[in-house]
Amino acid sequence: MTIDALPAAPAQTQSRTWEVLCHLASLAGWAFPFGNIFGPLVVWLLKRAESPDIDHHGKEAVNFQLSVTLYLLLLVPFCFVLIGIPFVIMLVLLSLVLTIVAAVKASTGQPYRHPLTIRFIK
Description:
- The chain is mainly alpha-helical.
- The protein has one domain.
- It is 66% helix and 0% strand.
- It has helices at residues 10-24, 35-47, 52-79, 84-107.
- Helix 1 (10-24) packs parallel to helix 3 (52-79), helix 2 (35-47) runs antiparallel to helix 3 and helix 3 runs antiparallel to helix 4 (84-107).
- The longest helix has 28 residues, at 52-79.
- It starts with 9 loop residues before the first helix and ends in a 15-residue tail after the last helix.
């Protein structure tokens, strides 16, 4: 058995699970208003002290969801003249895809930075 074939340490596996959950918790926004922000925020606040990787992914997830929410709020007035509707749809789909990409990267232990994210939390 080579070193590459050894299973991940339990602590590392648990840390990666929380890193993935930081990103996937934003899917709570599909069920609850502002759940996309509060889901990752709660996971990050509860687990950030356990690992620098969890802290990184939690900050990324919260910053990204705050940015997406801000962009959506800025698009709302444009929806009244119908030009904003396609942009809202594209932003929602992009947010979903980038959240899944971030979760996959987190599951492999890679750091990930979302594009077009305002860094509210550093």
